[in-house]
Specification:
The chain is of the alpha+beta class and 135 residues long. The protein contains three helices and four strands. It is elongated, with a radius of gyration of 19 Å.
Length: 135
């Protein structure tokens, strides 16, 4: 969670109930993502190892730390909407594409969305033989 919380316990045995509640919240959010039917989850925030593995076990690709500009571009091309919560995700906010590929060009990896219903753009990746580029 983004917010820090302080909890004071009078009985050490209460600690496990707090830990269990946190795990339940995490798994509830992950289940909501899976139940939405999405096959690709993009997040502007970090995605932990637990969530990454949870999605991978269910054939869902996830990408973390996606820039706001890229999220908006993908949403516009796929007909989706950027969501700020996993609650009330309906089919109308989930975008679609015909083909999704992850390609490596040099040392960088790119997520390629092809056959998007609203896609009217193209990305061109230019590479040179050196790290220096002169204009």
């Amino acid at each position: 969670e983004k917010e820090n919380a302080e909890i004071r316990l009078s009985d050490p045995l209460q600690y496990q109930s707090i830990v269990d509640a946190e795990w339940n919240i995490i798994y509830d959010k992950l289940d909501k993502c899976v139940k939405s039917g999405a096959k690709i989850v993009l997040s502007r925030l970090a995605i932990g190892d637990l969530a990454t593995q949870y999605f991978a076990d269910r054939d869902i690709l996830c990408a973390r730390r996606v820039t706001e500009e890229d999220l908006q571009r993908v949403a516009a091309a796929t007909g989706g909407t950027v969501q700020t919560s996993v609650n009330n995700v309906i089919n109308d906010v989930i975008g679609s594409c015909e083909v999704f590929e992850e390609k490596q060009v040099g040392n960088e990896r790119f997520n390629i969305f092809s056959g998007c219903p609203s896609g009217q753009t193209a990305t061109i990746v230019l590479r040179g033989g050196a790290d220096q580029v002169f204009y």
